[in-house]
Amino acid sequence: MNDSDEGAGRAARSKRADARRNQETLLDAAAAVFVASGVEAPVRDIAAKAGVGVGTIYRHFPTRADLIIAVYRHQVEACAEAGPALLASSATPHAALGQWIDLFVDFLVTKHGLAAVLQSDNAGFETLHAYFLDRLVPVCTQLLDAAVDSGEIRSDVEAIQLMRGVGNLCIGAEHNPHYDARRLVELLIAGLRLPPG
């Protein structure tokens, strides 16, 4: 391989990395707008938040459903990757679990409205739900196991039960300004703690 081939390979990798970063920026912006305004938020709001034109969003995601599915997958991946990172960087496993649950709540808020958008494609929604469980239940299990092993929390809660409980606490939160789902989730996580002694 000569120098020009090597340079071309580096340039192609750099271009792919830039494209991936640009798409992640778009998806992060869309997620933030969805959290603030719901999944029916105007595309122009997402474009403004991402610092791009509306055409750029449509070029990457031709339909709203495409954009929502991409945001959903992006957030599942971010949530999955955050678990081990939080375990490594937090003061305690219980603190890592609490921080991860905060991310999970953000994800659930973004997810609201997804079912309505995908009603015409039940198989697509089922595939996404299976993907969600496959990626996030093991991460939550890892966080719970670490907190149990450190003696911080009770050992009789399974990841799927905790995730379902958090999900149920988040239902309807966006329609009632007097309902603070995040506060109730904090109480739930605090309630897992074992009394000192």
Search tags:
Tetracycline Repressor, domain 2; single chain; 197 residues; mainly alpha; 9 helices
Q: What does this entry look like structurally?
A:
By secondary structure, the protein is mostly helical. The protein has one domain: Orthogonal Bundle (Tetracycline Repressor, domain 2), CATH 1.10.357.10. It is 76% helix and 0% strand. The protein is built from 9 helices and no strands. Helix 4 (64-89) runs antiparallel to helix 5. The chain is globular. The N and C termini lie far apart (66 Å). The model has no long low-confidence stretch (mean pLDDT 85).
In a few lines, what is going on in this structure?
The protein is mainly alpha-helical and 197 residues long. Helix content is 76%, strand content 0%.
Question: Helices, strands, pairings?
Answer:
Elements: H1 3-37, H2 43-50, H3 54-60, H4 64-89, H5 93-111, H6 114-117, H7 122-149, H8 159-170, H9 181-191
Shape: globular
Low-confidence stretches: none
- CATH class, anyone? Mainly Alpha
Question: What's the oligomerization state?
Answer: single chain
In DSSP terms, counting alpha (H) and pi (I) runs of 4 or more, how many helices? 9
- Helix-strand topology string: HHHHHHHHH
Relative helix content: over 70%
Distance between the termini: 66 Å
**CATH fold-level name:** Tetracycline Repressor, domain 2
* Number of domains as seen in the coordinates: 1
What would CATH call the homologous superfamily? Tetracycline Repressor, domain 2
DNA-binding region: 42-61
Domain HTH tetR-type: 20-79
Pfam family, one: TetR_C_43
Keywords: DNA-binding, Transcription, Transcription regulation
